[in-house]
Here is the input.
Amino acid sequence: MAGGALAAYGVGTSTGAVTFTSLLQATAPETHRGRVLAAFDMLWQTGRLASLLVGGLLSGTVGVHWVFLGGGIPLLAAAALGFTTRIRP
Here is the structure.
């Protein structure tokens, strides 16, 4: 079960990253596209590192169960928002 959940999470985050990167490429001016994508990648990787740090500290304090629950609820909310929001080109 844990392996399936991890695989689903990986597919979801990878799909989100590809979608967001594609959106950046489509909307950023050609003259600034490299800088925009570099800034996005820097922020994305910094967020990943920060989440590892915060998750590790919190799991020692409140327990792993609560860390997973606290991380899962925003992911489900984002999925619900994505399914219910219509974006016009």
About this structure: The radius of gyration is 16 Å. The helical segments are 2-27, 33-61, 64-84. The chain has a mean pLDDT of 88.
